[in-house]
């Protein structure tokens, strides 16, 4: 089979590997779609000295092609999606479906385990979920990380239709959050320094937009939209420190802020926020159960999550695909078979 390997410093190749054989409790999946995630760029851009030999990609959807001993043979031929963290399966976190928080350590698809930018991928049966009828392979791939990460954060925030939420960053995760939050009935204020991304956020349901590069104060701009109060919820997805700090400042009394963007630094005066009774939290992707809830919600509300993908590629287009993705001027790409 073929698989994309990152060698670091923007070098990668489509390498040949033996077809995987499922061990006890494992499934082999024929990959039909594998989304490109912003975190893949860390391996793409990273130093050669720390490059790994594992196949990249961690947003798969496909069809079960083979099962190992102890796995249910009824999986054969089923369309599935995959939770891309593999834990011990025994600790309290694994039993709750939070395998990325495994007490014994976790393996991450596309990083410390072979990923889905390939023809085939081998995964533990416990990480596999059937695709609900009506969900496409592209939709399932999106939910596998980017859209699922947005959903997990909105669940952490306990978002409802009575909320106004400021979503910082309108890249793939932020745009997915805008789409899902709007479908939940919330009013979304989308923030990004890219005019094209802000324009796209309107198509995904944003109620209002703010370009931080075009206003003197993000806090004041948001409060002008909310009768001076601020928002009940905020979500930071970009990883920019300025946005991470603004996510706190735009909150109304009793507001809640959540951060999913990696790489930012937050500095604040506790006294400023102490008297506002705020709640601050982080969110790391989603649990297996949350992933299933997201998929069901998308199908029930007929949400076009496929639209988050702006480019569709074949594995043989790997070089052009990552050259474009590296520029971060477009949306989200996906490899399809």
Automatic annotation (TrEMBL):
Its cofactor is Zn(2+). Gene3D superfamilies: Medium-chain alcohol dehydrogenases, catalytic domain, NAD(P)-binding Rossmann-like Domain. SUPFAM superfamilies: GroES-like, NAD(P)-binding Rossmann-fold domains. GO terms for molecular function: oxidoreductase activity; zinc ion binding. It holds the Pfam family ADH_N. Keywords: Metal-binding, Oxidoreductase, Zinc. InterPro entries: ADH-like_C (IPR013149), ADH-like_N (IPR013154), ADH_Zn_CS (IPR002328), ER (IPR020843), GroES-like_sf (IPR011032), NAD(P)-bd_dom_sf (IPR036291), Zn_alcohol_dh (IPR050129). Residues 8-335 form the Enoyl reductase (ER) domain. The keyword DNA damage does not apply. Belongs to the zinc-containing alcohol dehydrogenase family. This is Threonine dehydrogenase-like Zn-dependent dehydrogenase. It comes from Kribbella caucasensis.
């Amino acid at each position: 089979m073929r698989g994309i390997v990152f060698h670091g410093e923007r070098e990668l190749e489509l390498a040949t590997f033996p077809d995987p054989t499922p061990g006890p409790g494992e499934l082999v999946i024929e990959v039909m779609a594998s989304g490109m995630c912003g975190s893949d760029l860390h391996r793409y851009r990273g130093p050669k000295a720390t490059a790994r030999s594992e196949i990249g990609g961690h947003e798969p959807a496909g069809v079960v092609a083979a099962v190992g001993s102890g796995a249910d043979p009824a999986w054969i031929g089923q369309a599935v999606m995959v939770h891309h963290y593999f834990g011990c399966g025994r600790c309290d976190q694994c039993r709750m479906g939070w395998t990325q928080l495994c007490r014994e350590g976790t393996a991450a698809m596309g990083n410390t385990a072979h990923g889905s930018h390939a023809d085939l991928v081998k995964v533990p049966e416990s990480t596999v979920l059937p695709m609900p009828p009506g969900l496409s392979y592209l939709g399932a791939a999106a939910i596998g990380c980017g859209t699922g990460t947005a959903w997990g954060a909105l669940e952490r925030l306990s978002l409802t239709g009575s909320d106004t939420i400021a979503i910082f960053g309108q890249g793939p995760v932020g745009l997915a959050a805008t789409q899902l939050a709007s479908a939940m009935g919330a009013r979304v204020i989308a923030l990004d320094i890219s005019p094209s991304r802000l324009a796209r956020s309107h198509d995904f349901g944003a109620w209002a937009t703010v370009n931080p590069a075009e206003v003197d104060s993000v806090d004041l701009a948001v409060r002008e939209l909310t009768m001076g109060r601020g928002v009940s919820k905020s979500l930071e997805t970009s990883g920019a420190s300025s946005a991470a700090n603004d996510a706190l400042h735009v909150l109304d009394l009793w507001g809640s802020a959540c951060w999913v963007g990696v790489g930012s630094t937050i500095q604040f005066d506790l006294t400023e926020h102490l008297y506002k009774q705020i709640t601050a939290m982080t969110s790391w992707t989603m649990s297996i159960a949350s992933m299933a809830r997201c998929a069901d919600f998308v199908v029930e509300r007929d949400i076009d999550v496929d639209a988050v993908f702006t480019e569709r590629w074949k594995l043989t287009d790997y070089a052009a695909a990552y050259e474009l993705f590296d520029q971060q001027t477009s949306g989200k790409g996906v490899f399809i078979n």
